[in-house]
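lol forgot to send this yesterday, sorry. struct tokens for the thing we talked abt
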């Protein structure tokens, strides 16, 4: 038998203690990678690490704690991670959730905006030197978990935090649009490097998110449950983009995928909005870089 396919490679997965993040992290560990799980709950994170080690026999699985509703928390965690992983092969920006009512964090951001977009953006910015350092040797990748929900609503740059007209689906859909646009713009900015970025729709997956998004999300979850796919199926394109030899590689070009194929994006998911979102996001996270 040869060496595991990902032996010696460093993978970082956010939102890794449950759902498709956990499934993907376990698969990366099974393939021999050194896997960093970025989680909010220490108890659930420790349980996930223990479960992955037990299932795969790979002890190179570590836990880093951060509250993705706090940019300061994410920034501090990124600093610790960089000390341990000066080179990163793959960053999987997967953490996210839905919120039934509008709320504002202690730092002044609408909760879905910061937990689903700004924290992942800040993390990517801070880890980028380690990703680019690795890319001098071989292909590096950044993968964003987006959603078909990005079709729900175009961005309103005059009200990025949805202070008016808030709804769970609109806030979630816009955050998933931001994930897709960030992948597009990051690829544009790294066009001359050996880094590939992509985003994907996992499908309608049976995950805890349906129970946490308020009454409407719970009702939708009940209605859609018979047609939902397993977490394993939902993680398939995720794992493929992040690890497989036959993944799109340089042809990914910041694109959006579903079921391992390029998928259409909303007409309002434009390169112009991607650049504008990047610039705005840089301004918002600047105090925490």
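and heres what i got for the seq, position by position
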């Amino acid at each position: 038998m040869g060496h595991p396919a990902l032996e010696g490679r460093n993978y970082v997965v956010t939102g890794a203690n449950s759902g498709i993040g956990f499934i993907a992290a376990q698969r990366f560990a099974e393939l021999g990678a050194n896997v960093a799980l970025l989680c909010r709950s220490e108890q659930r994170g420790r349980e996930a690490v223990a479960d992955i080690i037990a299932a795969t026999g790979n002890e190179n699985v570590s836990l880093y704690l951060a509250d993705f509703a706090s940019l300061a928390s994410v920034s501090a965690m990124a600093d610790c991670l960089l000390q341990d992983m000066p080179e990163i092969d793959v960053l999987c920006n997967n953490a996210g959730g839905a919120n039934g009512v509008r709320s504002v964090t202690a730092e002044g951001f609408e909760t879905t905006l910061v937990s689903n977009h700004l924290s992942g953006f800040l993390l990517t910015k801070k880890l980028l030197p380690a990703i680019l350092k690795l890319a001098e040797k071989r292909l590096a990748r950044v993968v964003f978990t987006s959603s078909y929900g990005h079709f729900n609503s175009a961005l309103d740059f005059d009200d990025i935090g949805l202070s008016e007209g808030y709804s769970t689906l609109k806030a979630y859909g816009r955050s998933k649009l931001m994930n897709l646009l960030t992948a597009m713009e990051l690829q544009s900015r790294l066009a001359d490097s050996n880094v590939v970025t992509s985003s994907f729709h996992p499908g309608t997956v049976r995950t805890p998110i349906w129970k946490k998004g308020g009454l409407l999300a719970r009702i939708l979850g009940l209605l859609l449950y018979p047609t939902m796919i397993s977490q394993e199926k939902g993680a398939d394109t995720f794992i493929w983009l992040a690890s497989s030899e036959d993944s799109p590689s340089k042809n990914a070009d910041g694109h959006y995928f579903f079921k391992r194929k390029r998928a259409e994006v909303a007409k309002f998911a434009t390169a112009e909005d991607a650049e504008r979102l990047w610039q705005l996001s840089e301004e918002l996270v600047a105090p925490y870089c």
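The chain has a mean pLDDT of 90. anyway ping me if u want another try
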